[in-house]
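Researcher: Next sequence.
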Amino acid sequence: MIQVDRKNFVSEEHYHNAYADHPRPIGWNTTISAPSMHAATLEKMKGHLLKCKRAIDIGTGSGYVAACFAEIMPKGA
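Model: Next structure:
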């Protein structure tokens, strides 16, 4: 999660608290989840992502978790 800056996935009006541990609006009446929720998801997926060649994040919303998946997965897979 350190390699993917959450600030790039929230609106400009929420830059100042992009890292607070609560959901932030991203438009279209939806939110980016709290960082603790992303951390829990990534922790559960880490073992699978380290050895997989493909992953799909259904309902990706902001795209933050999908970007984190890409950081975890082997390069050149």
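Model: The chain has a mean pLDDT of 87. Residues 35-49 form the longest helix (15 residues).
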